[in-house]
Amino acid sequence: MPSANVYNVTEWPVGNPLEDIGAVINSIIADIRRRQATADVNDAGKPGAVIYIPPGDFRLRTQVRIDISFLRIFGSGHGFTSSSIRFNTPANELQQWHEVWPGGSRVLVDLPAGIEKTDADRAAFLVERSGSPRISSVEFADFCIDGMHFSSETDDAENSYRNGKTGIHIASANDSFRITGMGIVYLEHGIVSHHADAATIDNNFIAECGSCVEFRGMGQASKVSNNLIGAGYHGYSIYAENFGGLLVAGNNVFPRGRSSIEFSGVARSSISGNRFHSFYPGMLVFSGSCSENLVSSNHFFRDREPWAPMLRYDNGLDDRFGLLHLNGNGNSVIANHISESIDVRFVKPTGEKPVIIRIASGSGNYVANNHIVATTEAVRSSDAPNSAAFATQVDAILATKNLTSLDVVAVLVDAQSSQNIVLDSGSDAQVLLDRAANAFRATPVIGQSEALGRN
Q1: Shortest CA distance to 279 belongs to which of 302, 311, 299?
Q2: What CATH number labels 210-455?
Q3: 251 to each of 132, 177, 224, 300, how far by Cα in Å?
Q4: How far apart are CA 66 and CA 186, in angstroms?
Q5: Residues 180-190: pLDDT tens digits?
């Protein structure tokens, strides 16, 4: 029989979901709260509900406020398509496009401007509840949250990654949240979660956002896995602070984020089996003091932005910062493949060697068996704005012919860091460290192994 706990936004009698889906969902949540008012009746009481968003375009003019557990909001398709390509395509060419905007079950974030006091005020979906227990088991699945436009005072507003909008903002301590199958696009912040425990962010498409996934406050025992992610040049693709037991695995992280992944004060967490691509140094950053984390079996690839509309932007870091920049103790960086391919003309500062792995502070870090491939080739860029952007970027990734070796510092251990072990991650000439304060074994160089063996 039909359940009273299953809702469809297009069938709810209060409000118009096409004009303001936020007001409709808030009305549904109020109904759930009214009907499920008793916490314990015959070993039950508050089972929660599901809210279905069918395919269509639903404008959100009222923030959705969630303060109940066991709520699932879901749709029938993440509907992602590139807004960045669209906004960099001439109007006459757009007339030939099959579709222009994201689709699927699409929520258009159109909150009125000028009301915000905090970051949470500009979120499409705000999850917040005080008291005990923590709010639990809220799920978002299979729909699109679209910020529609970026805005700034520059002449290139749609490439600014700024609009003050957030897709999902979880403001209070939470347990066992799930965000799966979502499409999240053109928001300054895609997902922000404070004090998360046992969170799952899996199989989403979160791209062309200022920052994509941010764990704030503190948290534990969560995972970011199997996502397609890409932030803007001043934001994070994946960020976590004061976290323990975070698993980041199986993600494909696109370029253009200020960092592909950044940890601050994170301990005993794992970054494994990901593919990271960046146009800038600082792909992976451990800031503050990060301890006993494992970075293993990832592919890191850094090249230069090949698409003309975005050539003017970068993250402000120079190549001495390192592709992997570590602060902290007892971290392991093991068996990663790291590729850097960049024309020497674009190395900053001019004449310097790019640094691949830099241990800036801390002790007891273990860097071993990393394969570093550093090459240079004259860069080809394209000013073609639309489908050619795809071809331009793929061509850049696939460019492996006519490459020559690029002289790099494979591992740099700063003077304030000691008691580290660096093994087989660079030749004798490529690793810079105090050998009295750190342990080092060089990667053998072809043609030198026999001579070294006789000495």
Answers
A1: 302
A2: 2.160.20.10
A3: 34, 19, 8, 12
A4: 23
A5: 999 999 999 99
pLDDT in the model for residue 318? 96
User: Which pLDDT value is given to residue 391?
Assistant: 66
Residue 394: alpha-carbon gap to chain centroid = 21
Mean pLDDT of 268-291: 97
Confidence band, pLDDT 50/70/90 cuts, at residue 167: very high
Residue reference for tokens 């070993």: 43
Cα separation, 404 vs 373, in Å, equals 11
The H or E element containing residue 296 is: strand 294-296
* pLDDT at res. 291: 98
DSSP state of 79: -
CATH architecture of 1-185: 3 Solenoid (2.160)
Backbone angles phi, psi at 94, to 5 degrees: -60, -25
First-to-last C-alpha distance (Å) of the chain: 83
Q: What pLDDT band is residue 451 in, cutting at 50, 70 and 90? A: very low
Q: Start-end ranges of CATH 2.160.20.10 in the chain? A: 1-185, 210-455
Distance CA 116, CA 122 (A): 6
Q: State mean pLDDT over 442-451.
A: 78
Query: Full-prediction pTM beyond 0.90?
Result: yes
Cα distance between residue 110 and residue 107, in whole Å: 9
pLDDT at 378 over 90: no
* Tokens matching residue 62: 């009222």
3-state secondary structure of 454: helix
Rounded Cα distance between 52 and 182, Å, is 14
Backbone torsions φ then ψ of 388, nearest 5 degrees: -65, -20
Decide: helix, strand or coil at residue 394.
Answer: helix
